[in-house]
Amino acid sequence: MKFNVIPLIVVIVEIAKSDFIFQHFHDTTGLKFVGDAFTSSCANASKFAYGDVHSPNVERFDEVELPSEFTESTTIVEKTEVRTNPHGYTNNDYAQFGHRDDFEKEPLSECPVRVRLTPSKPSRVGALWYTQGIEVLSGFECGFRFQITDLSRSCNYVKDRNFGLNMHKACAVHGGDGFAFVIHGDQDELETLGNGAQQMGYGGIENALAIEFDTWYNPDMGDLFSDHVSIHSAGPLKENDAGESTQLGLAKLYSLADGKEHLVRVRYYPEIVTEFIPYFTATRSLLDYIKDNEEGKRVGTLAVFMDGETTTPLLAMPINLSVLLSLSEGTAIIGFTASTGRSWEKHDIISWYCCEEPPCLHASTIHGMDHHNHQSQPIDYHDVSVEYPELVRDVPDHSTPADPSHVSR
User: 13 vs 55, which has greater pLDDT?
Assistant: First the structure.
C-alpha cells in the first residue's frame, strides 16, 4: 500500500504577552487603580455605576467649591472664589489674566467608559498601572488618547473701601494641575502613588521616568506659562520631581486642557534615530544618561508624538534607559498619574495600547478612533432630578478591586 505523505506546516504566531490594547475601559482586567482614580461613563446617575472602580459622574457643579479667601488692606477688600466652571458658561463671560482662550466641557451624554485619573475636585491624586511588567530596554511603543475637561473657575471680587459701592468682578477659567505617563521600578510597585498638586502624582516616585502634560503654571518650578509637555527623571536612586532639577530636555508648549481629545504616541528606539536629531533637546540633567552601558544596551532615542504626527516628534532626545532606570530583567511598570490642587479639572484616559516590539499591530485602532461618534442620545445626565432608563452594557465588568470610597463620594 502506498501512502501519500502530506507535509504538515505549523505556523506559530508569537505575540508578546505584555502587548495590550484598551479601546475603552468597559473591562479593566489587568489594571490597578490607586488613590482617586476610577472609571466613568460621563453619566451622572447612580444606576450607571458598576463594579468596584466604576462611578457615575460624581461632580455636582454647585457642590464643588472651595472656601472663599479674603484679603484686606486699608484701601480695598478682595475676595477670591474657586469652583468648577458651570456648563453653559462661555468664553465671553470672563475677563481676567490667565483665562484660557479655548475650553470645552465634558460631554453631557453617556460616553465610552474611560479612566478618570482625578475627578474635577480639589486636592485629588490618582494613578493607573498595568499589572504586568513591560520590557522597555529593547524598545517599546505606547499610545493613548486623553481629554481634560470641566476646569475650575476662579473669581476675584474687589471693592474700594473709600469710594466703591459695588465690587468689581473678574473671573478666569484655568484648571490644574496635569497628568503624566510614567515608567518606573519603584519598590512600591503597583501601589505606587506620588505627591499631589504641582507634582502631578509622579513627584516622589523613585527610579522613574515621567512624561508630564502640565496645565498649571508654577513659576517656582521653572514651568512655562502655558500648557506644556516635558520629560523628567532623577535617575535610578532618587525620587522624581516635577521641577527644573529633573527636567531632561526643554519643555514644549502644546494646548492640552482645551476639552478636546488628544492622541499621544511614545516610542523608545534602542538606537540613535538620525532623522530625529534635528529635534533633539537636552539639559545638563540628561548628560549622565547619554552613554552606552554594555553590548545591546547602547544609547537610544525617546520620542513623543502628538495628535497623529508620525514624522516630527514634539519632543525627542538621546537617552539610555538601561542607565536611567534600574530594572529587573529590563521590565518596568507603566501607567499614568495625575493630581489637582486648589485648581482642578478632569484628567481622562480614553484608550491605551502598548507593545514591546514596535511597530504595534493595533496602533491604528487607537489612532483612527473617533470617540465622538460613539455617543448615545443627547440626554443631560448631569440633571440628577430626572429618571433615566437603565443602560444595558454588552461587556461585563471585571474591575480590579479598589477603595470603595472612590465610588461612593
Answer: 55
